[in-house]
Every structure is written in structure tokens, then in C-alpha cells.
Design goal:
By secondary structure, this protein is mostly helical. It has a single domain, classed as Alpha-lytic protease prodomain-like, CATH 1.20.1510.10. The chain has helices at residues 14-40, 43-74, 82-112, 121-142, 151-180, 184-213. Helix 2 (43-74) runs antiparallel to helix 5 and helix 3 (82-112) runs parallel beside helix 5. The radius of gyration is 20 Å and the shape is elongated.
Length: 220
Amino acid sequence: MEHKHEKVKPGKSQSEKKTAFVVLFSATTMILEIIFGLFSKSMALLADGIHMGSHVLAIGLSWGAYVLVRHLESKRAENVDKDKVLSLSAYTSGVLLLVFALFIIVEAVERFFTPVVEIRYTEAMVVAAIGMVVNIICAIVLHDKHEHEDYNRHSAYLHVLADALTSLGAIFGLICAMIWNIIWIDTLVALVCSLVIIRWAKNLLLYTGKTLTSKPDIHP
């Protein structure tokens, strides 16, 4: 009796599972922050929500890369460098991280020239705190001591870490505006956070760029 050879489909890696969790978890929080950012009229909180929404797309790209690699492994594709597929995803994610940081800078500069609006501090701080907690949870989930062995996962980690930073900045700016009536701190904090994110993006692009441009090993 003949037995047909069945292809064993590769299972989902831990990185893929963790990235998928972060995408869905962050997407839910993103919707909450954008709604309350508009309601509370806090630029920092709204920027945080938009920033998180952008990261959901970027982290979704990382998730998609894992799914693609798993699909290629199931097809036993020999002519595809799976490590470079993940590095390419991480490089693209780094570019998006840089673009999002620049977007926040533009929004913050525009705020300097707009009239001061009333800010609903309590609502804004509550949602910013929720966003920060969510991002800290996601960062813990994605953290890997050997981050340079998986740039794709590390890029997703940097995205949620950047969101946690902007959430913390939003809370600090709101407190300064509420207690000392220093409204411009809200904008200054957004600028500082953006500069930190740009530095992270630059390092990620350098690391992944080296991987993508390295020559493959040729075995005789």
C-alpha cells in the first residue's frame, strides 16, 4: 500500500505570534487615542494616536514578512534568502519610522503658529496613560535580548517603544500645561520625542542596510 508524501507546513514562529498580538492590540488602542485626541484637543495626544496608527501599519508589515517567509518555507523556495526578506521588511519599517517622526515635527512646528485652544486635561491624560501602558506591554512582548539576530522583530519593538515615548511625552506636556499653564511644552515634547525616534530609525537603517547589501556566501 502506497503512502503519499505529505508536506509538513511550518508552524508559526514565536516572533510571528508576538508580532500579530502587538498589531491587533495596538490597533484597538490607536482608535481610542485618535477619538479622544480629537475630543480633548491635545496635539500631543492626537499625534500619539496618529503615530500609533502609523506603527500599526509598519508592524503589520513586519507581521506580513513573517507570514511570507512561512509561506516560502512551505513551498520550499530555494532561491529566496529568507533572512534578507525579513531585513528588507525591517529596513522599510525604519524608513516609515523616520517619515512618521518628521511628520510629527511638521505638526509640532505648525502648532507654534496656531492659536491656543482649550485642552481637556483629564481625558487627555487618561488616554495617554492607557496608550503608554499598552505600548509598554507590547514592548515587553517583543523584547528580545538578541535583537540583532532578528531585525524584523527589533523594528517592531522600536515602533512600540517610540509610541511609549510619545505617550510619556504627552503626559508630561499635559501636566506642565495644566499646572503651570505652559501650553508650548506640549509641542516641545513632541519635537524632542521625534528627534529620539529619528536616532532609532537611523540606527535601524544602518544595521539592516548592511545586511541587505552584504554579498551572499558562495560555497563551492
